[in-house]
Design a protein that fits this description.
Layout lengths: L4 E3 L8 H17 L10 E4 L1 H10 L3 H9 L9 H13 L5 H18 L5 E7 L15 E5 L2 H14 L3 H9 L9 E7 L7 E6 L10 E8 L3 H4 L6 E6 H5 L5 E5 L5 E5 L5 E5 L2 H4 L6 H18 L3 E7 L6 E8 L10 E7 L5 E8 L3 E8 L14 E4 L7 H4 L4 E4 L7 H9 L2 E4 L4 H4 L5 E5 L5 E6 L4 E7 L9 E6 L5 H4 L7 E5 H9 L3 H5 L7 H10 L6 H20 L4 E4 L5 H5 L21 H4 L5 H17 L5 E5 L5 H13 L11 E5 L2 H5 L1 H7 L2 E5 H9 L17 H16 L3 E5 L2 H4 L1 H10 L3 E4 L4 H15 L1
Parallel strand pairs: 16-17, 17-18, 18-19, 23-24, 23-30, 24-25, 25-26, 26-27, 27-28, 28-29, 29-30
Antiparallel strand pairs: 1-2, 2-5, 3-4, 3-5, 6-7, 6-12, 7-8, 8-9, 10-11, 12-13, 14-22, 15-19, 15-21, 16-20, 20-21
């Protein structure tokens, strides 16, 4: 028999059979990564042999097996009673005297090395833990704020007993481990005082898409069990790995979660939840320096193990230092084939009931079953959509029956999210008020097709599913690019066959993420509407300078898209709202004029140098400068929409330079939309001002034919295949080519009509950009066109 206790400094990943995955990983990091600056709390592990000695001396092996032999493996009707029976026997057993002596000795040495009597975290570590394709995370018990020898020994017995939790028994059977001899190690670790600060989880991979170039960090106030158990909606931070390595501004996204509860020490021992003050709910649990430090550590841990990792962190409220308290291989997307993609398209609009964080990509329809606790498991029928406040590992056997899962609390690293990914189920977590807005028997459609936000609609809606295999897929010589608006879809779409983003619409970000008219931020003190001022204060919480809110949000969103497609071009069109659309932004009505025909009014380039919007355009430019220079995304090109005259083009280029965006400096290219007849007629002259063109086929068709594209009465006349429109397109392509400038087209026609794609390619266009749902058909038409033009 090996040693009953091993210090973290004495074990590594090779010792998994002896101390389990959790403790082997802690020992591995303690030995190899603390020299690299990663802080790991010290501790020791009771080995699997200590567990076996306990079972042997209390003669429990036969008792346990007899009870397991009586388990109903069809309906699991007696699972809970058998689990409770085994645990009761283990908890009534005596810890062998030899083991008690060794625990005392290790405990004393831990106190001596720390220089004080630390509170302890006592965690279970199964010796088959974290095998490929399986994760025992959360199945066995952990005990926090353990003080004194008596409490420590009781926690050890309780960990031993948790090997036979109902959820653990069922999980082992499901994974085929019930025939494997599994023991349990117990980790005893110095407690990080996160109850006085914050804690959370981070992945060294984006867990929904499997995009490997970012670190996802989630965090809450207090101890991290609230995140793991999904009891709170945590803060979320996304960090770009290559940017970190180059010491650039690397934070791509920061989102506050409600964090309504804080898990703290209880005066009687153990822990308890307490309400989080409103002010703290709205604050980030980490500052930028701490986010960066954790992301740096995640990269080092991933590099050491050679696989994407799932990591738990904690901040000590006394020392204000960060620690890593656990790490295990990420078991879902690390084995994902990026060439196999399922595409889901909702075919009709529905009445939205609730929304939250989407887990898994897809759409499903079914009847709701609202459950309050796992004890109501028998009420859930196979395929029903489970709706509950929060889940923990006791829910595992139930969740496998559900068609989908909706929880009112929790984030992307919560228990419900992890299990949903593991069993391949769709989930929407953190869908606030879900349990009150959804009723048992309601027929709903859960839509996780739109990036990171999952939406729940009333009734059964129609959708379409397409399966794509991009492996060895031929690509056309002409560049197929994407039209993109939503940053949340960027990571998923990066796996599609493409050569970058030909049109990134800034308006979507302003409308959905920022929501405030930029001039209302510039002139906040001059706002007349008190209700509007209050709303802006709420949205800009944490930003002393309200203009920085706009720059920060816009740069992060554009940065996320630039990261997803790096090093390929991402062409960002500067804002192209019309006056009526700008007026609908918060605070917008005070700064916009009413126009009879906004489509032909104060829009595009004309706004940028006009005193009515110039300071708003400055904010757009500051955000783009941050993306390119501080974040390092030189693949971002800029594009000016609706530029009516050559003089306007020169004015815009000049004002952009005054705002720090000098054409040609640091490879900055500035394109122009070719969407007005004047852009075509004077294409040679526009080519002397700008670095390239993108044909806006909708506006060019509208203005060539004199047809309002929004008019239902005239819709039959709106046709990009009209000879006049095609003549304009042909003319501007030839002018661009003759000037040595790139030219692309953004529009629906090339995917709908193979002949239109053939026409564009015959003219020598450089790129064609498609909406994501039209990309595959578009590439098919491009390949067909190129084969006919050879």
């Amino acid at each position: 028999m090996e040693a009953l206790i091993k210090k973290f400094s004495q074990v590594g990943i090779k010792d998994l059979p002896l101390v389990g995955g959790k403790n082997a990983s802690l020992g591995e990091m303690y030995q190899n990564l603390t020299p690299k600056g990663i802080r790991i709390p010290d501790g020791f592990a009771l080995t699997a042999d200590a567990y076996r000695l306990f079972i042997e001396e209390n003669r429990l092996a036969e008792v346990i097996q007899e009870k397991l032999d009586k388990l109903d493996k069809v309906n699991y009707s007696n699972l809970l009673s058998i689990s409770n029976g085994i645990k009761k026997k283990i908890l009534s057993g005596n810890i062998p005297e030899q083991l008690i002596k060794e625990i005392r000795k290790a405990h004393a040495e831990l106190e001596k090395s720390n220089g004080f009597k630390p509170d302890l975290a006592v965690r279970s570590s199964a010796t088959a833990e974290d095998l490929p394709g399986a994760s025992f995370a959360g199945l066995h018990e952990s005990f926090l704020n353990i003080q004194g020898e008596k409490a420590l020994l009781h926690a050890v017995s309780s960990c031993f007993a948790s090997l036979y939790n109902a959820r653990a028994i069922k999980y082992r059977i499901d994974k085929g481990f019930d025939k494997i001899e599994i023991a349990l190690s117990v980790g005893v670790q110095v407690m990080v005082r996160a109850d006085l600060a914050s804690s959370g989880v981070c992945f060294s991979i984006e867990p929904e898409s499997g995009f490997k170039e970012v670190v996802l960090i989630t965090g809450c106030w207090g101890l991290g069990e609230n995140i793991v158990q999904g009891k709170v909606i945590p803060d979320e931070f996304l960090v770009y790995k290559p940017g970190l390595r180059k010491k650039q501004r690397a934070i791509l996204s920061k989102k506050t979660g409600s964090k309504t509860q804080t898990l703290i020490y209880s005066k009687t021992g153990g822990v308890k939840n307490t309400p989080t003050p409103i002010q703290k709910q709205r604050q980030f649990v980490l500052n930028d320096e701490e986010i960066t430090e954790l992301a740096d550590w995640a990269i080092l841990i991933e590099e050491h193990y050679g696989v994407p990792m799932d990591i738990e962190w904690a901040k000590d409220g006394k020392s204000e230092k960060l620690y890593i308290v656990q790490a295990r291989p990420e078991t879902i997307h690390s084995e994902r084939d990026p060439f196999l993609v399922m595409e889901y398209l909702l075919k009709e609009k529905g009445e939205e009931i609730v929304r939250g964080n989407s887990i898994g990509s897809g759409i499903i329809s079914g009847k709701v079953r609202v459950l309050q606790s796992p004890q109501e498991a028998q009420l859930l029928k196979k395929g029903e959509i489970l709706v509950t406040e929060v889940t923990n590992p006791d829910w595992d056997p139930i969740m496998k029956k559900a068609g989908a899962i909706i929880t009112a609390k929790g984030g992307r690293t919560s228990h419900a999210a992890i299990v949903a990914r593991e069993v391949g189920a769709l989930a929407v977590v953190g869908a606030e008020n879900a349990t009150s807005l959804l009723k048992t028997g309601d027929l709903i459609t859960l839509d996780n097709s739109g990036g990171k936000t999952g939406k729940v609609y009333k009734g059964k809606l129609n959708w379409e599913t397409r399966k794509h295999n991009f492996r060895n897929m031929p690509m056309p010589k002409t560049d197929p690019m994407l039209i993109l608006a939503d940053p949340e879809q960027a990571f998923n779409l990066s796996f599609y066959p493409n050569r970058g983003v030909g049109l990134m619409r800034m308006e979507f970000i302003i409308n959905n993420s920022i929501r405030i008219h930029p001039m209302a931020l510039v002139h906040f003190d001059k706002l007349k509407d008190k209700a509007v001022k209050k709303q802006i204060r709420e949205l800009c919480f944490g930003y002393e300078d309200k203009k920085e809110y706009f720059v920060d949000k816009l740069s992060q969103s554009i940065g996320m898209i630039a990261a997803a497609f790096y090093p390929q071009d991402v062409i960002v069109r500067m804002s192209d709202f019309k006056t009526n659309e700008y007026a609908n932004l918060i605070g917008g009505r005070q700064f916009e004029v009413e126009e009879e025909n906004p489509m032909l009014g104060f829009r595009g380039a004309s706004r940028y140098y006009n005193e009515r919007y110039q300071e708003g355009f400055r904010l757009e430019c500051e955000a783009m400068k941050r993306v390119r220079e501080e974040m390092g995304f030189h693949n971002v090109k800029l594009m000016i929409p609706f530029c009516r005259t050559l003089e306007e083009g020169k004015k815009v280029i000049k004002i952009m330079e005054s705002f720090g965006l000098k054409q040609g400096e640091k490879d900055l290219e500035i394109y122009v939309m070719a969407e007005i007849p004047s852009n075509v007629i004077l294409a040679k002259e526009f080519a002397e001002i700008f670095d390239g063109f993108s044909i806006g086929s909708n506006d060019l068709t509208q203005l060539t034919l004199g047809v309002d594209r929004d008019s239902e009465v005239l819709s039959g006349l709106f046709d990009e295949n009209n000879p006049a429109v095609k003549s304009m397109i042909s003319e501007v392509i030839h002018a661009a080519k003759n000037s040595g400038k790139k030219i692309g087209l953004c529009g629906q026609a090339p995917s709908d009509n193979p002949n239109f794609a053939q026409f564009l390619i015959a003219q020598g266009i450089n790129s064609i950009s498609f909406n994501p749902d039209a990309l595959m058909k578009g590439i098919e038409n491009m390949l067909l066109a190129e084969s006919k033009n050879t």
